Amino acid sequence: MTGSSTAQHVKLLFHLEQDEDGYPPASAETLWAITVGEGLYKIDNIPFFATGVAVEDIVSAELEAGQLVYKDVVHPSGHSTLRVAVYNHEEVPRVHELFKQLGCATEQSHLRGLIAIDVPPSVSWDELRRVLDMGREQDRWDYEEACLARS
């Protein structure tokens, strides 16, 4: 979680659509969020599988069967979400450090080699794209653009 310890954190449920290969490996994901208004929440961790949302986005959610269920992005934050699947699991710590040096935050999934990356608006997309493509070309990883910043 990226917010302060005094903020009111809640879990939001995101329903996921699995492809024919069973990816993502779950039908739902929960994300931490901070309550910012009636039915409004600020995303406070990097999504591993949900698409279309990023850290600090303000989203709407409704209570359904005792769970807060994500409905829509109300105000995009300007952050983007990427996911990198690192092929050599021993390289994962170096990959975390590489993206940290570029100004991104990262989180490690329970799936070996999967890293979720938060790209703040201040990060240079030219440099980031160069690094992402170089890693892909070197067969170090593949990546997914799960949520690109919207203005």
From TrEMBL:
<dbReference type="InterPro" id="IPR025361">
    <property type="entry name" value="DUF4265"/>
</dbReference>
<protein>
    <submittedName>
        <fullName>DUF4265 domain-containing protein</fullName>
    </submittedName>
</protein>
<dbReference type="Pfam" id="PF14085">
    <property type="entry name" value="DUF4265"/>
</dbReference>
